[in-house]
Amino acid sequence: MFKTKVENLLENALLERSDLFLIDFSIQGDNQIKVVLDGDQGVSVEDCMFISRAIEHNLDREEEDFSLEVMSAGATSPLVNRRQYIKNTSRELMVKTTSEVIEGVLVNATENEITLEWKAKEPKPVGKGKIVVKKQANIAYHDIIEAKVLIKF
């Protein structure tokens, strides 16, 4: 009952703010509500406060004792939502699939797959030495075990 009420409040707040989307939502044993968000343009403190108020101001602390934590998905958190891939187009990703790990620039994200590009050194077709070639891979979402944005300094 409590979980359903919180889910409905969260859903309504996200309908109002279509630029934000849910990454994770849980309610622990003693009514500890945890909401993790991301947004098409990132997530600000004000965005977190908006979602927090939308939930908190519609629950009665006299009726239910609860704690509420609303946060943005961390920069090093794995990508879990298709909208996160679209948001991170042209950034470098590390993608772990069932058969390999690929590091490359995310050049496209569609409904079904992502496209990564990277440069690799390969032996020259004729003669000695190596040449740099541009490689590309299309990876279906269902083949991705984990994907993270690579943060370079």
UniProtKB/TrEMBL annotation:
<keyword id="KW-0963">Cytoplasm</keyword>
<dbReference type="GO" id="GO:0005737">
    <property type="term" value="C:cytoplasm"/>
</dbReference>
<dbReference type="GO" id="GO:0042274">
    <property type="term" value="P:ribosomal small subunit biogenesis"/>
</dbReference>
<keyword id="KW-0690">Ribosome biogenesis</keyword>
<dbReference type="Pfam" id="PF02576">
    <property type="entry name" value="RimP_N"/>
</dbReference>
<dbReference type="InterPro" id="IPR003728">
    <property type="entry name" value="Ribosome_maturation_RimP"/>
</dbReference>
<protein>
    <recommendedName>
        <fullName>Ribosome maturation factor RimP</fullName>
    </recommendedName>
</protein>
<comment type="function">
    <text>Required for maturation of 30S ribosomal subunits.</text>
</comment>
<feature type="domain" description="Ribosome maturation factor RimP N-terminal">
    <location>
        <begin position="19"/>
        <end position="75"/>
    </location>
</feature>
<dbReference type="InterPro" id="IPR028989">
    <property type="entry name" value="RimP_N"/>
</dbReference>
<comment type="similarity">
    <text>Belongs to the RimP family.</text>
</comment>
<dbReference type="InterPro" id="IPR035956">
    <property type="entry name" value="RimP_N_sf"/>
</dbReference>
